[in-house]
Amino acid sequence: MSYLEIKNLEIAFPTPKGKYIAVRDINLSIKKGEIISIIGHSGCGKSTIMNAIGGMLTPTGGSVELANQKIKGPGPDRGIVFQNYSLLPWLTVEENIFQAVDSVMKCSKKEKHEIVIQNLKMVNLFEHKDKLPGQLSGGMKQRVAIARAFAINPGVLLLDEPFGALDALTKGSMQLEVLKLWNLDNREKTIIMITHDIEEALFLSDRIVVLNNGPASTIREIVEVNLPRPRNKIEIVKMPEYIALRDRLLHLLTDKFSIEDMGMVYKS
Amino acid sequence: MSDKDTLTLSAISGQAEVLTASTTIDTAKSDKLKFLINQIVGRLQSTFFAGIGILIFIGFWSLLRFYTKDALPGPLATFTVLKEMLSDPFYDYGPNDKGIGLQLFNSIKTVLLGFLLGSLVAIPIGILMGASTICKQIFYPIVQLLKPVSPLAWFPIGLVVFKDTGMATIFIVFITSLWSTLINTSFGIASIPQDHKNVAKAFGFSKMRYLTKILIPFSLPHIITGLRLSISVAWLVIVAGEMLSGGAGIGFFVWDSWNALSLEKVISAIIIIGIVGLLFDKFFTYIENKVAYR
């Protein structure tokens, strides 16, 4: 049973030199509650696919269907966490989330405020609710953005390189944070995430979509990650399945593995 | 999560904190004092150097007086007249003999009225120009054509339309106040980052919510900057305008004093005009800082 269905998706942009095809022939069906990573080199159209699912872009060919409904624009059934957090700098942390909740949810003001508070507590930012985004660290801003996306209770969560700008330590705890929220929600939310990071993709996802290099990139391979959950970061890296998957992904994404491969052999 | 860690850490170190509490209060006090002293020293220093600047200015002025063989009144004579003017600023001996306070009040009233009307027109048009390409294509050529024109050139048109010099003066201030506000507003609106627009799109913001939570907060600092530039130019123009219109205001006062060959009064008026302009600017800079975000 597929929840999100991408059929023959093609997205092209008009340019002075003619039509530029960013991605084409994308076919993907995603089950409810699945975590999918899209991985590929810079400029391979990862964000383009994400924007098509988010409804920020209209496909030039094919379609994206969510619960058998064709996606025509942005909607509250999909929560987006942007690459650069995209918080409104003049609103407090609480207000940033509240404006989204107030815009999307149909319930009383009191209930809306309760939703905001509950989500702030989930990402451990309740004490910081009156701060402005400018007073927060990168990791905290990202947590606000995630809380905002979760607060509108969407079926699908779209994360566009969510931890790309964070340091390795913060990144690690943020990945756990996302898994925690996913678990708290009975693993019912479908999460689609763009990443550059093979370890991150393996730790979080059920399937990893590897894209070819652009332009006109297509899906190169979909890698199933059959590692048992809950996953322990230290444990899974020792599993032979993990090592095999990581090597497979490295091969898919890398052309050369050492400088000798480039014909430069050093003699001592 | 890191916040939780620090919480437990501070709980553990709570005991140690009690022991060192008295010393921390002392250091906190002396830190506060140091900060205060530093601040006072900084203020004194800037006042001192400002004083040097003024002294240099007065020095040149005295030199100029010396070279013009007393045709230009010196600082001392001017300040005596200025003091006299300020001792009774609100006297009214008929239409051609009013105190400096009344004249100034008249000018400020004219400027504020023209500025207010100008801003009421410029801000909405600026918003339209920033938000819609078509509006920009309609208005921008007109703005480009009329912006470089000296506002005084509008005076005859004001006279013809309103048949009243006072109204005509307000009209030229109105015209003057348009351009900077218009251009800054439209720039502010046009430069709303795609990120912010995406937020509105992704969370389905209504037009009203977009206006009040994104458009206005983002562009307000730009609009205030426009207003600040507009009022400084308006204040520049009012003096010239009142020289033309005559009858009332600080500009008329300058011209009238020149005709009466009282250069002391002219220079005193210049000083007062400068101070009022500075105050206008300070006021808008204050608001600018208030509405700025990081």
Automatic annotation (TrEMBL), chain A:
Stretch forming the signal peptide: none
Subcellular location: Cell membrane
GO cellular component annotations of the record: plasma membrane
Name of the molecule in the record: ATP-binding cassette domain-containing protein
Keywords: ATP-binding, Cell membrane, Membrane, Nucleotide-binding, Transport
Topology with respect to the bilayer: Peripheral membrane protein
InterPro entries (UniProt xref): AAA+_ATPase, ABC_transporter-like_ATP-bd, ABC_transporter-like_CS, ABC_transporter_ATP-bind, NO3_transporter_ATP-bd-like, P-loop_NTPase
Domain of life of the source: Bacteria
Predominant place of localization: membrane
Source species taxonomy: Bacteria, Pseudomonadati, Bacteroidota, Flavobacteriia, Flavobacteriales
From TrEMBL, chain B:
InterPro entries: MetI-like, MetI-like_sf, NtrB
Organism for this UniProt entry: Flavobacterium hydrocarbonoxydans
GO biological process entries: monoatomic ion transport
NCBIfam families assigned: ntrB
TM regions (residue ranges): 48-67, 111-131, 138-162, 168-189, 233-254, 266-287
Membrane topology qualifier: Multi-pass membrane protein
Keyword Cell inner membrane appears in the UniProt entry: yes
One Gene Ontology molecular-function label: nitrate transmembrane transporter activity
Keywords recorded for this protein, A-Z: Cell inner membrane, Cell membrane, Ion transport, Membrane, Transmembrane, Transmembrane helix, Transport
Annotated family: Belongs to the binding-protein-dependent transport system permease family.
Name of the protein this chain belongs to: Nitrate ABC transporter permease
GO cellular component: plasma membrane
Domain ABC transmembrane type-1: 104-284
Intracellular or extracellular location(s): Cell inner membrane; Cell membrane
Keyword NAD belongs to the record: no
Entries under Pfam families matching the protein: BPD_transp_1
